[in-house]
Amino acid sequence: MKIKALGITSGILLASASAFAQSSTVIAAPPEKVVTFVQQAPAPTERVVVKEKVVVGQPLPETVVVTPIPDDPTYAYAIVNDERVIVEPSSRKVIQIIK
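and the corresponding structure tokens:
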């Protein structure tokens, strides 16, 4: 009886983990050329400030303009709250915050 319950529990946990892995899209860390481009990009003339904290894995607010990386459209960037961030253009999720 205990073995059967353990098997059922294990199956549920594996199914949950599998479903989570399928629902979360992971994008690779940006290549060094993308990071360098974002570091050297000129800052906008107007400072962009949002109330929300900028967090890796969370999307930027729709009010923030993201700019595609010319040589690699897989990535885009923005400068928000004086932080340079690399984002996934389709979801606007922050991939990396450049310090």
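(Above: one complete record from the training split.) Residues 2-23 form the longest helix (22 residues).
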